[in-house]
Write a structure and sequence with these properties.
Helices cover about 35% and strands about 20% of the residues. By secondary structure, it is of the alpha/beta class. The chain has 2 domains: about 170 residues, HUPs (Rossmann fold); about 90 residues, Pantoate--beta-alanine Ligase, Chain: A,domain 2 (2-Layer Sandwich). The chain binds adenosine monophosphate (AMP).
């Protein structure tokens, strides 16, 4: 595995890689969810490239940019073990050189749910992903369904800007008790970690209710909310049942597959998760 830190070095190495090239972008602090994306890329592509970059523009002023967990040596060992050919770890100055002003924005989809709680977050994500697509010239790019809103926004950006890359959706990988793997899970105290199963318990309860014939959107949200409220350390930032494509909040009865998504806080740690309900 070749490790580079500049765009010029990446381009030089990239020229020698056989097509198709699969790309996996991450903030780092790798876990099983990340590795599942790399393994999928490895199966489907002749070459796999990755980026590790804690992107400052997607963090708000009071968010965890400076304390976001980092472990470069461990990350590189995991990427190498999973069969990555080339990885770029750019500096902030490399990604945002002096005078950098261009931003990519996907209005609408970026302003609801997580975007509403984290103003500017998705503009940071789309801007850095557009840069990385330009740098990597990947044929396929692998993203996790765990960040369902991010996936929809990136798919829209790729479509609207005619970017020559195919976005591949990958299923959420979970811990044994159902908590979605996340770099931020390390922030949880043992008590919070035990109660963090609330997100998946809530989503599963709504899924079970839907499977048993419940169609009322308020009832489905309530079934999920009850599970979260049963855990005293958990506090709901949002709980949504929305159209899978537009993310418009649903009212009345669910008639098509719908995205139930939520953000739940344990102290300063914000966790997200989602599930598709099939009525
Ligand atoms: P991050 O490093 O958090 O930006 O995540 C990098 C990529 O891994 C994103 O496409 C995420 O959606 C994906 N990802 C993060 N956690 C999981 C998970 N538990 N299962 C599947 N994919 C994940």
């Amino acid at each position: 595995m070749q490790v580079v830190r500049t765009v010029a070095e990446f381009r030089e190495a990239r020229r020698r890689l056989p097509a198709p090239v699969g790309f996996f972008p991450t903030l780092g602090y790798m876990h099983e969810g990340h590795i599942s994306l790399v393994e999928r890329a490895r199966r489907e592509c002749a070459s796999v490239v990755a980026s590790i970059f804690v992107n400052p523009t997607q963090f708000g002023p009071n968010e965890d940019f400076s304390r976001y967990p980092r472990d470069e040596a461990r990350d590189l060992a995991m990427l190498e073990g999973a069969g990555v050919d080339l990885v770029i770890l750019p500096s902030v100055e490399e990604m945002y050189p002096a005078g950098d002003v261009t931003r990519v924005r996907v209005p609408g989809l970026s302003e609801v749910l997580e975007g509403k709680r984290r103003p500017g977050h998705f503009e940071g994500v789309t801007t850095v992903v557009a840069k990385l697509f330009g740098i990597t010239e990947a044929d396929f790019a692998y993203f996790g369904q765990k960040d369902a809103q991010q996936l929809l926004i990136i798919e829209r950006m790729v479509r609207d800007l005619h970017m020559p890359v195919t976005v591949v959706r990958c299923p959420t990988v979970r811990e044994a008790d159902g908590l979605a793997c996340s770099s931020r899970n390390v922030y949880l105290s043992p008590e919070e970690r035990a109660q963090a199963v609330a997100l998946w318990a809530g989503l599963r309860a709504a899924e079970a209710a839907c499977g048993a014939g419940e169609r009322d959107t308020d009832r489905l949200r309530a079934v999920c909310r009850e599970q979260i409220e049963a855990r005293p350390l958990a506090s709901i930032d949002y709980l949504s049942l929305a159209d899978e494509q537009t993310l418009e909040e649903l009212h009345g009865l669910v008639e098509r597959p719908a995205l139930m998504s939520l953000m739940v806080s344990f102290g300063n740690t914000h966790l997200i998760d989602n599930i598709t309900l099939h009525p």
